[in-house]
Amino acid sequence: MIGARVPRREDERLLTGRGRYLDDLDLPDALAAAFLRSPNAHARILSIDASEARALPGVVAVYTGADLAEIQKPLAPKVLHPRLKDFPRLPMPPEELHYVGEPLAVVVASSRYVAEDALELIDVDYEVLPAIASTAAALAPGAPLAHSGAEDNVAVHLLQRAGDADEALRSAPHTLSEEFYVMRGGGHSMEARAVAARYEPATGQLTIWDNTQSPHYARQQLSLIYDMAEDDIRVIAPPDVGGGFGPKAQFYGEEVVIPWVAKKLRRPVKWIEDRQENFVSTMMERSQTHRISVGFTGDGLLLAVKDVIEHDQGAYCAGLQVPSITTSTVPGPYKIPNIHTELRACYTNMVPTSSVRGAGRPQAVFAMERMMDRIASHLGLDPAEVRARNLIQADEFPYKVGIMFRDGSPLTYDSGDFPALLSGTLSRLGYAEARSEQEKLRAEGRYVGIGLACYVEGCGLGPYEGARVRLTNTGRILVTLAAAPQGQGYETVYAQIASDALGLDMDYIQVVTGDTSRIPFGQGTFASRITATAGPAVLEAASLMRDRLAETAAQVLGGDPSDVSFVGDLACLGGSEEKSVSLLDLARVANIGKHGITLPQGIRAGLETSSYFAPERAAYASGAHAALVEVDPETGGVTILRYVIGHDCGNVINPLLVDGQVLGGFAHGIGNAMYEEPVYDAEGQPQAASYLDYALVSATEVPDAELFHIQTPSPLNPLGAKGAGEGGTIPAPAAIANAVEDALRPLRARVTRAPVTPARIVEAIYGSDLLSEGP
Predict the structure, then answer these.
(1) Are 355 and 249 contacting, i.e. CB atoms less than 8 angstroms apart?
(2) CA atoms within 13 Å, Cβ hemisphere of 584
(3) pLDDT, tens digit (0-9, with 9 covering 90-100), for 621-679
(4) How many Cα atoms sit within 13 Å of 346 on the Cβ side?
(5) Is pLDDT above 50 for 774?
(6) Residue 322 carries which DSSP code?
(7) Read out DSSP for 152-192?
(8) Contact call for residues 262 and 206 (beta carbons, < 8 A)
């Protein structure tokens, strides 16, 4: 079944309106919660009066940060660094607030409507403090402090070097420098964040429903904060959450407060984040400034790259994974002997930043791929040729880049064929013909451009992922994963892998996910890692189960385990159904037995196996995008005429689902490239807190794309798999920006910011030297 285009099992329920989202959870006697959020980007709480809110009929309780002393413990960052200057991110701060949307009180009532009404009755006296709303403002001399009492606004300053980039730039025949800016952006899942909880006084156990991407991580955090044993906390991630995209992989204060309230009130409590809350309180990503310099020869060969990066960390450090990934993604698929990446992550009074699909990679690719086009323009060479001359070749793997990846290992590309990706993309676009047609259209006064972008994506990260396989007492195989899906098709893909390992038809295999009571250890779904980690775990556990089934069947049938094969749900000796035993009967023999009676000789009790796979280091997916666009210089409108995606995620387990992942990622990438930007004013006040102002793409804006795959198996796991979920997203802003600048080359307009919006295009045109000279 591995490699087969199997339709998703999940689709039937989703297409027929039977999806099981957290808000669909029916908890009898449940109360509804609503959070009061800071209207100020930076303020000190002088007093809170909730007496009117508590008196409102239907209100059961109101809690402020001061009421939560026992659980006011820092929410630990996911990825740390010894030099990080960390400021505690508390579940509900009692004194100082650091961004618009930070929770400071919670109302629990008979309905969400009543709770919302009660929020308006809470009287808060704020001392408004100066706010920081950009890295430029954070680093300016004499800047206000995002956190009172801090030395400055720098969270961490990190360097990575290979060779001597400064010396190589000084001696290079040609050098270019530029500054690029990539905007913030959100995940915008169909169902926003949500938490429900129920406490069982008789057992002292908490059950928490959380549409997190990392249920085991949430349980670990709650265990530490509540000072409870992990086994007394059950976290369940529903099978359908409407997408995760990174923000749901983080741990938030609401996930601490809601279970605590449920325990305190001895009543189930549910909180569903509404869309307005999602805009101001769910973590975002991407705001970075890159000051990049490249040195190169007259033939366009790269000698050095130096990229000095400012990263907006937001009000707190939820983890350094995003900027760490950015610094190691800059070199891309190119041979660069001298590399210098320098990071300043800054605190600002903005919602904290963390991963959103791509997780630091789109910014790095934008900077590097824009410079590849600038090199070509400077030398009068074709952009495709400059890239081809610098690509790592297919016979050079494993390739050591010379710097470190975020997983703590040297950045070493495991496998790939970057020239094949580029040439395949160019061929499908009809690159030579498109260049010829471009010249004809320019002569007619039309502005048509071609943009290319290549990337390498570190994926398949550790530390580990696990799987449990069990023959149930219904005679079916149950595969359990710790990882929680957000639409990737786990119920299908991991049944395919188990089917091959077991030698059983998929119809006899069920997959369940995201429940900490079903499997003890896990990490979570993020960073395009699950196929390369949970996949091998499923393969190994299912292979062990096949051995156990064959061994048990052989004992029952009086044969050798090597002679056992499966036909339907029958374990057959020598391939004969006449000498067989059903899976149900095997369960009755080894799982159930006869009460008080000794097991038959040779039968081992409990048909269950498990496996945990820990990769030695990250794997590396790769790809190339090509865009053909036309730009209207009067309106700044961009029409995408053609788009081609070349993609390599190693061995493809289910091509149908991988296509969906890449094309879904492409839709997200087009949003990042051309539309999505949460605008803030200088005081950190959001100016785009609804879809009236935030341009989220729909099917109308996303063009058709031609997608092709090559498969260079990773040697780091037995499936040869890498990651697929972000490949459509990562290079899209760079490809679009390159295409737009190429289209406007006769006007000498330069594109340095993403998204590439009509307003920015018109500004670039009218700011160009050609038009500033007048008619």
Answers:
(1) yes
(2) 3
(3) 999 999 999 999 999 999 999 999 999 999 999 999 999 999 999 999 999 999 999 99
(4) 28
(5) no
(6) H
(7) -SEEEEEEEEES-HHHHHHH-SEEEEEEEEE--B----SS-
(8) yes
